[in-house]
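Following up on my earlier thread - several people asked me to post the actual chain instead of describing it. Fair enough. Here it is, all 149 residues.
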Amino acid sequence: MSMSENRKVAFEIVYSLESQNIKYEDYKENVDMFFEDRDIHGKSTTKYIKDVVYGTKRHGKQIRKQIEECLSEKWSYDRVSKINIAILEIAIFEMLYLKTPYKVVINEAIELAKEYADGKAPSFINGVLASIVKKNNLDNEKNEGEEEN
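Reply from S.P.:
Thanks for posting it. Predicted structure:
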């Protein structure tokens, strides 16, 4: 599976677990069932997906705080759709904890929003993630393979 496909599966699992209010201690059983139902296997694929699914939950409080701090005064976290929250959680986890280049993460998050969310979601996701990048100085970090001038 490609990384885009892996992210899509991770999103589907995160969204499903959160929508059903599955407790963290029951994640393993649910994730394993998801893999079995979808016939997903392969060490690198399952590792990435599990890292994202468990990581977004483990770092949920910090990720939620990041989102809340980037919302305008008119918006509260509880007003954001569960689909958008799941996309944002995965993207923020990847940028902050997996150190995936932010440009890749934002592009992938926007693509997920186009596929799963309403028409306004891509620009909302882009705006929140751009704020996260700026707030965490991710745009000032040297990208892997990039040479300094």
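Residues 71 and 128 are 7 Å apart (CA to CA). That should answer part of your original question.
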